Amino acid sequence: MKARGFTLVELLVVIAIIGVLIALLLPAVQQAxxxxxxxxxxxxxxxxxxxxxxxxxxxxxxxxSYGATDKTKIAGTNPQWGWGARLLPFIEQSALxxxxxxxxxxxxxxxxxxxxxxxxxxxxxxxxxxxxxYLCPSDASNGExxxxxxxxxxxxxxxxxxxxxNYVACMGHYTYNWNGSPSxxxxxxxxxxxxxxxxxxxRITDGTSNTFAIGxxxxxxxxxxxxxxxxxxxxxxxxxPKVLGRTFSNKLNTPLTGRYYSAFASMHPGGANFLxxxxxxxxxxxxxxxxxxxxxxxxxxxYYTSFSNLDKNTVGVYQRLGMSDDGVTLGEY
Length: 333
Fold this sequence. Notes:
Layout: H1 8-59, E1 66-67, E2 80-82, H2 83-86, H3 94-100, H4 107-110, H5 121-127, E3 164-165, E4 167-170, E5 212-216, E6 224-225, E7 228-229, E8 244-245, E9 271-276, E10 281-285, E11 294-295, E12 310-311, H6 317-322
Parallel strand pairs: 4-8
Antiparallel strand pairs: 1-2, 2-7, 3-6, 4-5, 5-9, 9-10, 11-12
């Protein structure tokens, strides 16, 4: 009997069926992969939460978002260590911590002068070390080094730019207004990780389960640096925002306009992961109620409105989660 093969029509039908099956399967595979990446990001933040609490147990307070080891050595806007560098011994990175000398010298002593070509090679290699626990796996475009953002001085070479972090501290409320000099009054930002002087849990009067400590920022929103800030008194994209994020002034996953580099944002669909002060991690939807509220006199508030002049009852849930002592009861989020 003569063998019969597929006709052209039958072959095309089979190819079409296979194409439809692949089209149906790919989104499910992508969703499964994203679920796994989001779970890993969640775990990263949980480990950071454990490190924060171990730091608190050791020193009696959370680390500052950024600051000097010895405040008397601060000169104006000198570079300063960030919370990510302070936590290194608590995330099994003691060797990196010791190489940089985080507790024995200032960042501007580890990287002397503003001419990065004179920086010691060992320290440069250290600040460029990617730390997997500070990187969100969903942020696949980060490349570990943010070559689009300066560090310490403008137009610096890519070869001396530090490794990024996809996690930044929540500043609570108000603007970056500390000039870094020894005599300058340290501002109270009403967040978990204040500048220069870390706060203890007793000051989180809203409750540790109701207050952001750390949140995500993706590469498109300029991410952050784990090592610290190149300038301690600026709101430019290469200064204090490299370790800090706001709930005021920007919504979650805000568009890339204005001071978007101060926002919390992620590449997870629909929101971002946040570490709360109690060590728990929650996924916050970007549809969360968000409003800067009103002043006590009834006018529109802004990020620079002083805490005492802000009517806390009128701000959004997202903003309330960013503050540690607003005194307003939270609803569902």
